[in-house]
Design goal:
172 residues, 72% helix, 0% strand, disordered N terminus
């Protein structure tokens, strides 16, 4: 449940920010020993990449729900589960979508590393300058960026459709 921040104190959520690092190649390397050169180890590594931004934004979203709304819902007799599903999550929807959008962009951009585990795709070109030349590498990197931006744009449209109009206006 959401707890109000101490009076006059802005909540600090910097510790929740996911900083992408070299974890994905390590997860792929560990997965090679368990699953071999398969789609499974690549999918697990990409899933692990997606989890931190989704969880951190979900926590932040529910934590920033107006405490007065939560108190009002409790005062009307809603159970904790009802408060979560009928008050906190609907009000947190814009930030929840932000976490999903961040995760999708991370996954698309990290998927180029799948070539290290035999996954192929645009990663073959991005990591294969000797074979494709600098122009090929730049073109493939631009396609990866365009794919990530297109996916983010589609999720932004979906967010616009699913988030109630009143919450869109309140959040910007």
């Amino acid at each position: 449940m959401a707890r109000p921040p101490a009076q006059g104190r802005v909540p600090d959520h910097e510790h929740l920010q996911h900083r992408p690092g070299p974890a994905e190649p390590r997860v792929i390397a560990i997965g090679l020993g368990i699953f071999g050169l398969t789609f499974t180890n690549i999918a697990i590594a990409l899933l692990i990449t997606a989890i931190p931004p989704i969880l951190s934004q979900a926590y932040l979203a529910v934590d920033q729900v107006d405490p007065d709304m939560v108190r009002s819902a409790r005062g009307m007799g809603l159970t904790p589960a009802q408060v979560l599903f009928k008050v906190e999550l609907p009000l947190a929807l814009p930030l929840l979508f932000t976490g999903i959008r961040i995760a999708v962009v991370y996954v698309i951009s990290s998927a180029t590393l799948a070539t290290v585990a035999g996954g192929g795709g645009l990663g073959d070109i991005v990591l294969g300058q000797a074979r494709y030349g600098l122009k090929g590498v730049i073109a493939a990197a631009l396609w990866v960026a365009a794919l990530a931006l297109a996916a983010d744009g589609l999720l932004a449209l979906l967010q616009r459709v699913l988030v109630p109009k009143g919450l869109r206006a309140a959040r910007g």
